[in-house]
What we know:
Blueprint: H1 2-19, E1 21-29, E2 34-40, E3 47-54, E4 59-64, E5 70-75, E6 81-87, E7 94-101, E8 108-111, E9 117-122, E10 127-132, E11 144-147, E12 152-157, E13 163-168, E14 173-179, E15 186-195, E16 202-207, E17 213-218, E18 223-229, E19 236-243, E20 274-279, E21 285-290, E22 295-301, E23 308-315, E24 321-326, E25 332-337, E26 342-348, E27 354-361, E28 369-375
Antiparallel strand pairs: 1-2, 1-28, 2-3, 4-5, 5-6, 6-7, 8-9, 9-10, 10-11, 12-13, 13-14, 14-15, 16-17, 17-18, 18-19, 20-21, 21-22, 22-23, 24-25, 25-26, 26-27
Amino acid sequence: MKQTSLIAAALTLGLGINAHAATFAYISSPGDGLISQYRLDQNNGALDLVEQYNAGDQVNPMAITPDGKVLFAALRVKPFQVQGFSIDPKSGHLTPLSKAPLAESMAYLSTDREGRYLLGASYGADTLSVQAIDSAHQPSSEILTYKTGLHAHSVRTDPSNRFVYAGNLGTDKVLQYRLDHKTGALTPIGSGFVKVTENTGPRHLAFSPDGKYLYVVGEMSGTVTAFSINDSTGALTEIGVANGIPERLKLAHGEVRDARNNDLKDDPTPRIWAADLRISPNGKLLLMSERTSSSVSAFAVDPSTGELKFLDNYPVQEQQPRNIAFSPDGQWLLVTGEKSDKVGTYAVSDDGALKRVGEAASGKGALWIEVLQTSAN
């Protein structure tokens, strides 16, 4: 009888926690140095702006620790540094917590799956970095750096937390490393990279939930390349490529961009300029943002084989969409536009179709999105 009562109490507690769960989104806007906090209604996709924090000039990539307690945000002006904010578990409120130097101006920021290391990718300095995070969530001032080929654009650990992969846009390579859990050191796997088709421009990464497959978006090609991950060695093997740019968009192949020609002002040709890549929580849907056409492309994922199938491309109201992010249940998609004054919420159907259901004011040049589900009253 006592055991039955305990089980019933545990179930009641679990239902209570789920009933009071809150979903927050944090979006950086380098144009005004703000991090905007939003609350997402999981029932209808409504988005409400809660608060805005002055994070600092050119605040850009962000990362939330696996325990959901701290948000890290990188500033892309000298002296390059990362700001840490504690996250209130009920309100989602951010409170300044820490500061630490960064090796370079970072285009991408992440933590390993245990929250012990902060990883960065510098597009302009062609560098990856790793620095330890202590028990108080303070990143170390001692930084390991690794030179890459031209334009490192992302860096993430796989779900097993044994391997690290990076998109190296300017060399058409996906870099592969083994992570030393004791020191944070990165050791090349095999040659240290796999090549993709020339002029693809590997940019952002997404892993299948089971960690068997890696997907990489090509900024210049608008394709997604699928790789299998060797469970023992971490070595990547290409298993397929899916094109996310239908002919009706009338986009020419993209070009490598940097600070000198980011907007290709002297080139009036509409060109492919893919950006972010996100996989749904159930691992069956992959979404890719494309900036020139202000659209999102959807791919079906076969979880058993890792293979991709292009479904369709959908316009979004946010102009020049940079980052996209699923809600924790996969029902909603958040979209930022670098040239939009709104952040949009879209209902996501099983086939990837998008329907805009909510919006809220954004900061200037909004781009990076981090989503967190917390327990709240």
